[in-house]
From TrEMBL:
It comes from Acinetobacter stercoris. The gene is yngG_1. CDD domains: DRE_TIM_HMGL. Belongs to the HMG-CoA lyase family. Residues 5-272 form the Pyruvate carboxyltransferase domain. It comes from the Bacteria. This is hydroxymethylglutaryl-CoA lyase. GO terms for biological process: ketone body biosynthetic process; L-leucine catabolic process.
Length: 299
């Protein structure tokens, strides 16, 4: 049997949080309903952050409530603090994600606090989540470079990741936030992290600004990472990382993994339909190389 790779689809959150014109709840819902047909088992639906900071993600709990629940699909929400946690809990969300960074400057710009202060906020969230049996995923941004500080020491990435795991996150996703890294530098981060942490606890979240995301994922696979975040059609970026492009496109990740013999659970026709529909709504060109070849050659 082929080895399974877990994919966390972050298009509805990371993908849409940076769109100039926020989509309506109906449009976001229709996007997620399409994604729920693709075989993707983990979908980050939105975030419970301040709507003043990220208006695109406003009303994510209404969106969550409007979605049909399927016990085989994890629908999660990103939250920065206890207020966000309470909102997610109130709509019956069973999985949330907390987020900090390996860079002080990025943490300050993104969530308006220091890294240590972010841990203090998460301690309350994790304690409450444990009591409520809500699973918590962690994100650590700037695994290689920070848009404000430049190169980040891999040991700092390890420290922040270990802290989130000790606090009770079941898995931590390392964000290559601005997409500047090449595989040699990604390798150094995994070398240090994997010397202390099991690969089953770590995920890779690669943005594709310089077209390196697939190369970085290949490097990560070589080192034993089997969990990746991706965004359909490479949607996205981070509002607090100017110029950062979207995540690796789910279509390209599918092509890499399926051709390397990994199982992903993705149904290709449904994935391509979801991709076609969201690009139409956003009136954008799909930068995924696989998607371009697929439409040119196969259809
Ligand atoms: P703050 O101003 O320090 O917070 O912001 P505060 O506690 O002083 O509250 C200020 C106001 O925000 C108050 O409202 C609060 O009620 C409200 P006011 O009294 O002014 O009307 N507020 C909230 N509203 C809704 N939901 C909440 C919430 N909390 C406070 N949960 C805060 C701190 C964290 C809220 C703010 O900085 C924020 O919302 N930041 C958003 C950051 C964000 O969403 N960034 C993008 C996601 S991270 C990412 O993309 C990286 C990732 O993809 C990995 C990678 O690529 O590296 C994960
Ligand atoms: Mg991201």
């Amino acid at each position: 049997m082929s080895e399974f790779v877990k994919i966390v689809e972050v298009g509805p959150r990371d993908g849409l949080q940076n769109e100039k014109t926020p989509l309506s709840i109906e449009q976001r819902k229709s996007f997620i309903l399409d994604l729920m047909q693709t075989g993707l088992k983990n979908i980050e639906v939105g975030s419970c952050v301040s709507p003043k900071w990220v208006p695109q993600m406003a009303n994510s709990t209404d969106l969550f409530l409007s979605l049909p629940k399927d016990k085989h699909i994890n629908l999660s929400l990103l939250i920065p603090n206890l207020k966000g946690f309470e909102q997610a809990k109130a709509v019956g969300c069973k999985e949330i994600a907390v987020f900090t960074a390996a860079s002080e400057s990025f943490t300050q710009k993104n969530i308006n606090c220091t890294i240590d202060e972010s841990f203090e906020k998460f301690a309350d969230v994790l304690a409450q989540a444990k009591a409520d049996e809500i699973k918590v995923r962690g994100y650590v941004s700037c695994m290689v470079d920070c848009p404000y500080e430049g190169a980040i020491a891999p040991v700092q990435v390890l420290k922040v990741t270990q802290k989130l795991l000790e606090m009770g996150c079941y898995e931590v996703s390392l964000g290559e936030t601005i997409g500047t890294a090449t595989p040699d530098r990604v390798k150094k981060v995994w070398d240090i992290c994997l010397s202390e942490i099991g690969s089953h606890l770590l995920a890779g979240h690669f943005h594709n600004t310089y077209g390196m995301a697939i190369a970085n994922i290949y490097q990560s696979l070589e080192q034993g990472i089997r969990i990746f975040d991706s965004s359909i059609s490479g949607l996205g970026g981070c509002p607090y990382a100017k110029g950062a492009a979207g995540n690796v496109a789910t279509e390209d990740l599918y092509y890499l993994l399926s051709n390397m013999g990994f199982e992903t659970g993705i149904h290709l026709d449904e994935l391509m339909l979801a991709s076609k529909n969201i690009n139409k709504v956003l009136n954008r060109h799909n930068p995924s190389s696989f998607a371009q070849a697929y439409w040119q050659n196969d259809k």
